TrEMBL record:
Keyword tags: Iron, Oxidoreductase
Pfam family, one: TauD
SUPFAM superfamilies: Clavaminate synthase-like (SSF51197)
Protein name (database record): TauD/TfdA-like domain-containing protein
Coiled-coil positions: none
């Protein structure tokens, strides 16, 4: 796989505030795509074929020799879809296949790739947020919520405890943590609940609700961007949250999550 050299610097396509407008880059310009992903936390690759194989190729291009694990493709089709709120992809599912455990999702997926296979006839534009900037801003605008996100343990997937394949042991963590190599993780999941019999259970519930309110409140102000057929949105899943507007008609995407050597 070749990396195409170029002399011009990456285009500065950053939005004001925590909103992100990913720069669109032809898929052959690998170096530029990597630089933009590192700088902005997101990039859109154009020109790939509208196939599931293209997601694997794109992951190899942007992550390179740091790529360690890919998880199974997921196809998401929505008809007359309601909005999808800001979130970071992560889950914790292990299945048994022929007596051998196989991990199908990982709590510390640090990259997510979303390929638009069928744009909606109307609506369905995407939006993304730099969660690092969002959390840092809370330190002055909402110190109590900032303290909760950085200092309180929750059960990250407890709301989904009845799903088959989800481990029985609670997955305990904080919304903001650091990997052993120093990478900051800012999580956003609807699965988070207080730890069983946490003495601060009411406080945790209140802060989880306040986080949801804060996220929903900021969404209307974020810049929107479309994904055309075949486009691949690549996100630093530790840094960026993403969502999309509601739409009419049918819309489909393929999703691939991955872990690099920098994860966990």
């Amino acid at each position: 796989m070749h990396t195409h050299a170029h002399s011009r610097p990456p285009q500065d396509n950053r939005a004001s505030g925590p909103g992100i407008v990913p720069t669109r880059v032809p898929h052959g310009r690998v170096r530029e795509a990597r630089e933009l992903l590192s700088r902005d936390g997101a990039v859109i690759l154009t020109g790939h074929e509208n196939t599931s194989d293209a997601l694997v190729v794109a992951a190899a291009q942007v992550i390179g020799d740091r790529l360690r694990e890919l998880y199974p493709h997921r196809v998401r089709t929505s008809r007359e879809g309601t909005p999808v709120h800001l979130h970071a992809d992560s889950f914790d599912i292990i299945v048994d296949i022929g007596g051998v455990p196989h991990r199908r999702r990982h709590p510390d997926e640090d990259h997510v790739l979303v390929q638009c296979t069928r744009p909606a006839p109307h609506g369905g534009d995407s939006f993304a947020l730099d969660a690092y900037a969002f959390v840092d801003g809370l330190a002055s605008t909402d110190p109590a919520l900032h303290a909760f996100l950085t200092g309180s343990d929750v059960d990250l997937y407890g709301a989904w405890a009845d799903l088959r394949g989800l481990p029985a042991s609670p997955r305990i963590g904080r919304h903001v943590e650091y990997t052993r190599t120093g990478r900051r993780i800012v999580r956003r999941t609807d699965g988070a609940v207080p730890i069983h019999r946490d003495p601060d259970i009411q406080h945790i519930r209140t802060q989880l609700a306040r986080l949801t309110d804060a996220v929903h409140k900021i969404e209307p102000s974020l810049p929107r961007f479309p994904l055309d057929e075949g486009d691949i949105l690549v996100l630093d899943n530790y840094r960026c949250w993403h969502g999309r507007d509601g739409h009419t008609g049918e819309r489909s995407v393929r999703i691939l999550t991955a872990r690099s050597s920098d994860a966990g």
